[in-house]
Predict the 3D structure of the following.
Amino acid sequence: MRVYNFSAGPAVLPEEVLKEAAAEMLDYNGTGMSVMEMSHRSKAFEEIINTAEQDLRDLMNIPDNYKVLFLQGGASQQFAMIPMNLMKNKKAAYIITGQWAKKAYQEAQNYGEAVAVASSADKTFSYIPDCSDLDIPEDADYVYICENNTIYGTKFKQLPNTKGKTLVADVSSCFLSEPVDVTKYGIIYGGVQKNIGPAGVVIVIIREDLITEDTLPGTPTMLKYKTHADNKSLYNTPPAYGIYICGKVFKWLKKMGGLEAMKERNEKKAKILYDYLDQSKLFKGTVVEKDRSLMNVPFVTGNEELDAKFVKEAKAAGFENLKGHRTVGGMRASIYNAMPIEGVEKLVEFMKKFEEENS
C-alpha cells in the first residue's frame, strides 16, 4: 500500500510515472533492455535525453541562448562550480536565507571574496530579507540566492534587485512548481530529487555568455560548464536512468497543463494546510506569512515531546517523513508537485483529530 510521503527529498514521484517506468523496466521501447543497462551513446538514450531537454525547454520557456545541462554531484557540487566558473573578479554577493545558501556562501570563500549582503539568520531564517536596495559590491561577479528554503519553508516571492549583476539561483525545492522567467537569471539550477526525479541528477540552466574557457586556475575539467555544454551533457556517463525518469515527469507536467496549472494546484494544496495552521490552537506555522513556501511547510506544537508523539502517530496512520530537519526540529510537510491534494486533506484531518485528543 502506498503511503503519503511528505519527505523533503528524495521525495514523492507521480504514481503514473513510476508505473510506466516499472512497465518498461525489462524492455524499453522494444530495445530488449532496461534504460539502466543502456549505453549513453546509443540512439535510444540520445532520444531520451534530447526529448527530456526539449520538454523542459517547453515547460519553462527557456530561450535559445541558454544551455540545459544534466549533471551529477547535486546542488552541493554547484556551490563550488559556480565560483570556479563565474568569479572573474574574485568577488560575489550572497543572500543568506537558510542552511543551503549558507553552505554555498562558505564554499565560495575558498575561491574568492564572498560577501553576505543580506541575511535572515537573526530570526532563524523565518523570513526573506528586503532585497530591493542591497549594498552589492561594484565588482561583484554575481548575486546568489537559494530561492526556496527547504528546511525553513521560506520562498523569494520577488527576486532581489541585483543592480545589473548576474543572478544565480538554487531552485532545488521549487523547481517546476510554478512559471518562471528564465531571462532574469544567469544560472538557475537544482537537484531533481525534490520535485522532478530520483536523486543523482542536477539540472543547470545557464546563459551562454557565462560558459567560457576562462575559469579559475586549477578548475578540474569535469567542473567546467564548457566541458558539459560542448558535449551535450555526455562528456562522461551521465546519470542515465535518473534523466529518463525526469523526462517522464516533464511529460506528466505537460499533460497536467504545464506550470500555470501546477502553480494553481500547489497554491490550493498549500492553502488547505496553512489555513488550518492559522486557526489551530495546537499547531503553529513557523514562517512569516508573506514569505511562505508552497512546497515546504514547517510547523510545531511548541512541545518537543508532543512533536515526537505526533510524528510517531502520523507514521502509524500512513503519513511518512513528517519529522522536521534535525537542525530545527518540529515537523515539516513537503507537498511537492506529485503530492495529491487528498494527501494534504487527509493530513489536515489527522492533525485535527490529534489536536482534539491532545489539547
Observations:
- The domain at 16-255 is CATH 3.40.640.10 (Aspartate Aminotransferase; domain 2).
- The chain is about 35% helix and 15% strand.
